[in-house]
């Protein structure tokens, strides 16, 4: 039985949690990571949680020959989960060229490898940013895209189109794009979690850094949106629920005889505002967050949340953990990992 799964970006935030889920579900992950936005220490956290230290190859997916050198010597690969990408909406506006080069070139190399070595299943790390400013909410997988406001979202949309064309031209592969909403939280053990470099671009690690005193004050970008409290609204999902979605997608792909291309929203379907996230964090962790409002941030949209019926019906997946659990786990991770700062 083929049970090996290549996980690009497997030491990253979502990738590492998915590696744990793969190990817990009988798969053998093969991690590929260039350590640009991750740390070798993550492999130790994975080992402490699972008792297994998975195979790790420190290479760059943008360099095809490096990727092929690893893949050509491994037998029994049933799929590739492709995480390796730059992921900051705000940063992508400042470094658009780097985002297009990294996110698209790495995917093309993964596709070439899958085609050459007959790896049937590809699960792609996409994003709700492909919906742009949504035309209606909750967003569904078949709705037309609105205006995409940043190069990160545009790169993910382009990657989905490339995968769709690849599936049509090859007809030998099962390809699934998972459109993530906003992952938060950490593994309940506090052994792996989000490790942003410098000042975090994502809201929750920014909150935890303020709560722990590493940053002085949280900046809330905009309080004049047309929402219930003036702040942006998002669909926040626990990272372990998101990891589980990859297992469901891989199991679904492995179980299907027919080749296909499909996309799924992976979220909770519950919109939460920035202020609600802050106040809930304060309540569940009994700590005060010092924050101030500042001007809107370029590339941010007002509100987005998912309709997840398709994932529930087709993949038999739905989120299990609530916001409070996510915020407790994120704070637990921060308290246990002061050494990373």
Shape: globular
Please state roughly what percent of the residues sit in beta strands, choosing from under 5%, 5-15%, 15-25%, 25-35%, 35-45% or over 45%.
Answer: 15-25%
Q: Could you tell me the CATH topology label of one domain.
A: Rossmann fold
CATH class of one domain: Alpha Beta
Q: Report the span from N to C terminus.
A: 43 Å
Main β-sheet: number of strands, strand sense, barrel status?
7 strands, parallel
Roughly what percent helix?
Answer: 25-40%
Structural class by sheet pairing and helices: alpha/beta
Overall number of strands: 13
Q: CATH superfamily membership of one domain, which one?
A: NAD(P)-binding Rossmann-like Domain
CATH architecture verdict of one domain = 3-Layer(aba) Sandwich
Count of helical stretches = 11
Overall pLDDT level: 94
What radius of gyration results from the CA coordinates?
19 Å
The string of secondary-structure elements, in order, is EHEHEHEHHEHEEHEEEHEEHEHH
Strands across the major sheet, in which order?
A: 3-2-1-4-5-6-11
Low-confidence stretches: none
Any overview of this molecule?
The protein is α/β, with parallel strands linked by helices and 341 residues long. It has a domain at 4-184 and 236-267: Rossmann fold. It is 40% helix and 17% strand. It has eleven helices and 13 strands. It has helices at 13-24, 41-50, 64-71, 89-94, 96-116, 151-170, 203-211, 239-255, 274-285, 309-315, 323-336, and strands at residues 4-8, 28-33, 55-58, 77-82, 121-127, 174-180, 182-184, 218-221, 233-234, 236-238, 261-266, 272-273, 291-294. The strands form four sheets. The chain has a seven-stranded parallel sheet with strand order 3-2-1-4-5-6-11, sandwiched between helices. Strands 7-10 form a two-stranded parallel sheet. α1 (13-24) links the parallel β1 and β2. The longest helix is centred in the first third of the chain and has 21 residues, at 96-116. The protein is globular and about 55 Å long. The mean pLDDT is 94.
